[in-house]
Amino acid sequence: MIQRLISTEEKADGLPLPKRYWAILAIALGVSVSVLDSTIANVALPTIADELKTSPSTIIWVVNAYQLAITISILSFSSLGEILGYKKIYLAGLLLFSATSLMCALSTSFWTLISARVLQGFGASAITSVNTALLRIIYPQRFLGRGMGINALVVAFSVVAGPTVASGILSFASWNWLFAINVPIGLLALFVGYRFLPGNPVSIKGRKFDTVSSIGNALMFALLIFTMEGISHEQKLQFILLGAFLLIIVSYKFIKRQLRQEYPLLPVDLLKIPIFALSIGTSITSFTAQMLAMVSLPFFFQNTLGYSSSQIGLLLTPWPIAIIIVAPIAGRLVERVHAGLLGGIGLAIFSIGLFSLAFLPDNPSYFNIIWRMLVCGTGFGLFQSPNNSVIISSAPAHRSGGASGMLGTARLLGQTLGTTLVAMMFALLPISGTKTSLLLAGTFAILAAVVSSLRLSQPLPASLKKRAEEE
């Protein structure tokens, strides 16, 4: 029989200062390099394709392999975090990420680079799967929103820094150094994390890792991405139908197995908590809206307005900069204002920014574009950290890993759906694809605002409610 044992670390409410600061640094370093590596290679893809004598369509797998590895494994690593300890999984992820970054840097062929990128993606998945679960035990519960705000800031900054760092490195070094730069940062995070990250707050005696569910989870998400990519890239209908059929069969078997598990890999037990399920729904729809805009806008800026790559990078930057400014503020506001209300207001602002981008004038000035991007980033930043706080806080302490993994999965699903919808809009409406994508993005943002507002009828998680009552 499975028995839950509570350690002394769970009884303590957060880490004492200054140990907390060092633990936050370990999280920030690990998250920054894992996010950075999802975008840092994009700038160098043409160069890598030339050097490795590979076609542009094939070299895209340098990016896709990394993202696919994260998507199919993040829930498995979060489950291992609950069993073995969040700290152990996080440090193992950092070690794997650092070692495979070196493998990427030393790669001399397409297949060695892709193999290294898959393994690097697994390392990034381990880091991502438990980082918010660790934040829950690093911060006192009443200040968890602040931790989520800082985490959102680190992610946003890493997204902004990716193309800039890549351009800087490529100006004086080869593409190999895009990956080599991760090694010292990863090792530093590993050292700091080993010294200062807290151990697992909950031990489950008798619980074993569900290997069958892990394989089913990987197959389900791989088939989902395969089917969605097939639709967006207009592959042969028979392949799409075969993928969809297999997806239905695997998903049915997988979910049926999860419903019988006491600690399911796919946290269906947590999805029975209304405010958790609504927060996950808010996350999926909002990230779909974000990706619809972020993928379609560069094509409009380049093909319609004739901007260069450097100009496009600068025009996209105000969005994450606004998140960097607003997310920490929102992380503090959630201690006083219901996350459903913050999310509803933020996502409504987000939708206004998206619709305003859809109706840009024919020859917009830089100012016309920048203020709209700032509105989008402000709205998104106001929603993100409070939403993440509710997702983590509404799960029981011993299921923090499952909540952390589901948070990452919701983001990845939304981003994948958004990218797929952009490809579909461009295929169906080649002339007005960007405008249609932005209108669809605004619609998804409104839907996300409605879903977020539905949480107002639900009680806050105990830790957030206690803080609100104290205020």
How does this model look, in words?
The chain is mainly α. The protein folds into 3 domains: 7-208, MFS general substrate transporter like domains (Growth Hormone, Chain: A); 211-260; 266-471, Up-down Bundle (Growth Hormone, Chain: A). The chain has helices at 8-11, 19-36, 45-51, 56-59, 61-84, 86-106, 110-138, 144-170, 176-180, 182-196, 211-232, 237-258, 268-271, 274-304, 309-316, 318-333, 339-358, 366-393, 400-428, 433-453, 462-470, and strands spanning 3-6, 202-205. Strands 1-2 form a two-stranded antiparallel sheet. It starts with a strand and ends with a helix.
The radius of gyration computed from the alpha-carbon positions, rounded to a whole number of angstroms, is 21 Å
Low-confidence stretches: 5-11
Mind telling me which CATH architecture of the largest domain this is? Up-down Bundle
SS elements, strand count: 2
How many domains, as an integer? 3
Order of helices and strands: EHHHHHHHHHHEHHHHHHHHHHH
The mean pLDDT is: 85
The number of helical elements comes to 21
Q: Order of strands across the widest beta sheet?
A: 1-2
The rough form would be described as globular
Quote the beta fraction: under 5%
CATH class of the largest domain: Mainly Alpha
CATH-wise, what's the superfamily of the largest domain? MFS general substrate transporter like domains
CATH topology-level name of the largest domain: Growth Hormone, Chain: A
Structural class: mainly alpha
Oligomer: single chain
Helix content: over 70%
Distance between the termini: 42 Å
Please give the largest β-sheet: 2 strands, antiparallel
